[in-house]
Predict the structure.
Amino acid sequence: MNNANNSNGFYQQQEQWYADGVALTDIARQYGTPCYVYSQTAFVSAYQRLKTTFCHSCPQLCYAVKANDNIALLRLLAEQGAGFDIVSAGELQRVLLAGAEAANVVFSGVGKSSKEIDTALNAGIGCFNVESEEELARIEQRAAASDRTAPIALRLTLDIDGVTHRHLTTGLVGGKFGVSAADGQRLARVAAHSSHLQFLGFSCHVGSQIVDEQIYLRLARAMAEQVTLAEENGIAVQRVDMGGGFGVDYQQINPPLMPLAEYDRALAAHFSEQHLIIEPGRYIAAAAGVLLTTVEYVKTSADKTIWVVDAGMHTLLRPALYDAVHPTLPLQNSSAATQTGDVVGPICESADILARDLQLALTAGEYVGIFNAGAYGMVMANNYNTQPRPGIVLTANGKWQQIRRRETLADMLMFETDV
Ligand code: LLP
């Protein structure tokens, strides 16, 4: 775990962990745990790193809101001129509140409801990424009902394996996402001839946490073939959306971006005539977040130490759901002896293990940071066991501020009708 410099957001100095000049132990002490801390520097610099990496193909960067939907973060990206990839009317509401222009929004997802389609049409979003023939018909019908024209792209599933965790691959035929190449070509003709649909082009997304650039090169070639085929059939393709999925090296704090230079050049070569889009989520948000937690108890089980902390699978689901490994580090020097064991949460599930087989010096009351938790962390937090979701703090320039308050018991009970 190398020490990083300040431009990376999170760094260690004199055995203390900092975010943008603020000691994480100070936040834990003053604000309480569990809480997420997001570094503004880490978040914005990851966005800018992607912009620089794609300097030849110059795609529009539509941040995948699902990775981290906090409005303060979305506003930072809107200020940078980013577009947004949304999957619900709720996410649309968030990006509009953050100051995004609707024209820079693409709407993905296999299950858009009529209500969501109407909301997106009313807002004037840039494109619906359509995932089925049935959805295309629904969008056409909703657009006709309000005498509008819906801009659409067809999401193609080109049978390219994202080679990632089985829950994170989306590019294979037989899955729930997108339409086949043959259906895509047929539906492009349907859309191009509809008076309530504007056919813009094709989209794709082969999965998440992809670490091999070759997969993207294969995808770019396959998409280029589909563009050529459509144009040979007389259908103009103005837009190509390559989806997201760039992998993060979770073992490192301040992980470098995976190699993508060749992909950038391939995109520039294949799609010089098209408006290109990418939809990264994880890469922008992951390294920008740390989850702070306090050790409640230290117990032993057989020859193992079990550190029971106040965060768990309700605050960070990734270890339980995907066997994800996040750097899990004590935030202070401890007088405790180093032991081998697991960091676990309070939830009554044996899957509620945040980190396994670590060697840590930690005692009750001390703080732990779970790093690289900015993507798919808070968004997947839940109230299982009637546990409140954590608050969120944003750091910038030596200061911190709350950007989402911690939930209360009253918040959790307010939907019950029998209280
Ligand atoms: N575009 C589409 C259509 C997507 O479905 C996704 C992610 C993205 C873009 C952004 O992918 P990213 O750049 O973030 O990899 N909860 C999982 C990840 C699920 C990803 C779902 N779709 C996790 O914690 O690893």
